[in-house]
């Protein structure tokens, strides 16, 4: 799992980038199309998460939107600090409301918010760089955990929702670490040992730096990006994997 320092590093870098970015600048997001909208979104999410951790009860996300008259960057910094203080002070074993009606804990929220901050830091940086790398503020272990969490949280929810099955298993292989994963046709993700024998070999393998694999899952990288991804096996299955909406 990512450490508390990952959340702090990503949130601090996000605030610093927000302070230097025109809030009207376009970013690569169809949902939050400007830098200012991205800042407002992450700030709202962090306050909403902090409230649920503080109270142990579900909260209405709309109650934590930034008032129009409040300075955006100061508001974000204050909310990020509130979130980190709340996580630090909370009982790590206390059951808490989590995403999709599930129950979680403080570590669940610590993990979710670290990855949320990293993801939207990437979004914010697209205002100045059309295709930035995965935020370097997050180390290799944190990047790999973004993939683990995506499988545990978002693929699990996609299964419940009834996502269309893949033709066969797809492997993800990191080129800058020893991490590797398999995604079953039913979208269940598990870690695998690179080169380990398997009764059902993958129909496609996607190899890339672990941060690029995370960006691919987050729909923030294209499988066709030059020099970033290698596909072995059935390219059509790899494409179906990369383009099927999972995180709705």
UniProtKB/TrEMBL annotation:
Residues 7-125 form the Mycothiol-dependent maleylpyruvate isomerase metal-binding domain. It holds the Pfam family MDMPI_N. This is Mycothiol-dependent maleylpyruvate isomerase metal-binding domain-containing protein. It comes from Agromyces marinus.
